[in-house]
Amino acid sequence: MQRARLQVGKGYGNTFNCIFTIYKNENVAGFFKGMSFPLASIALYNSVVFGVFSNIQRLISHNRDPNTNRSPDLLGLTIASMFSGCISVGIGAPVDLVKIRLQMQTQKMITGGRSFNKMQSLQNGQAVYRGPIHCMICILRQEGFAGVYRGVGAMLLRDIPGYCLYFIPYTYICKWTTRDQFEAPGAFTVWIAGGIAGAISWGTATPMDVVKSRLQADGVYSTKYKGVADCISKSYRKEGLKVFFKGITVNTIRGFPMSAAMFLTYELSLKAIKRTYVDSHH
């Protein structure tokens, strides 16, 4: 929530000022705006992304040498990470769009079933969207299917290198901190490696994350950006180079625990599945 407001909103200053302003104007509920849609889809999203990464690197390793269980090299990890980034955009772009649109509504949500349009809502201080489903319907009705993937170019430029800087550091940190290369990393190693990888990935992805958020928020009340290059140009001319680092503190800090928990869950799930498979074949 704070990330989107810092990157797109006006008058928030720094992270702490943004937190204070959101709490003052919208109470605790303001920090969870637009989260229902991501929460409902996060299990599917992460299982697909991690599944694609694991299967592609396994396929690459097998094609290179079917007789060995050798861990993938840098090229294999990079290819698998890039594929994961592409898949993540296909699934995550609509979810991110709805989340950003809902988060950029600082007014209280409209009550009742009265119909309204964007300009009336802006003038009356009402929210444009009543919830995630209503938001998606409005986008499809007003912008068509292409509108659901607004900002997809910036998201690709964020997620493809972002996932390379996510999976590759994680793999190598686990490898460096595990004595036996055939031994699975321990829970603490996975936690630390996942957290560091998440902090690196989200921290370096911030410039494109800013552009993506601005493109996706564009259209709540009006449209001012024609595309990625136009957004970069206008943002730089108006706010300077520092605009592309808005929210970097939030991104880096939240990247550590979020990714640490994600990788730990992933590794523990793999171990449980393997154990179940072995037990069932004995």
From TrEMBL:
InterPro entries: MCP_dom_sf (IPR023395), MCP_transmembrane (IPR018108), Mitochondrial_Carrier (IPR050567)
Pfam family, one: Mito_carr
Keyword Membrane (UniProt): yes
GO terms for MF: transmembrane transporter activity
Transmembrane intervals: 35-53, 74-95
This protein's UniProt keywords: Membrane, Mitochondrion, Mitochondrion inner membrane, Repeat, Transmembrane, Transmembrane helix, Transport
Major location (coarse): mitochondrion
Intracellular or extracellular location(s): Mitochondrion inner membrane
An annotated GO cellular component: mitochondrial inner membrane
Gene3D superfamilies noted in UniProt: Mitochondrial carrier domain
Membrane topology, from the record: Multi-pass membrane protein
Entry's family note: Belongs to the mitochondrial carrier (TC 2.A.29) family.
Name the record gives this protein: Solute carrier family 25 member 48
Source organism per UniProt: Hymenochirus boettgeri (Congo dwarf clawed frog)
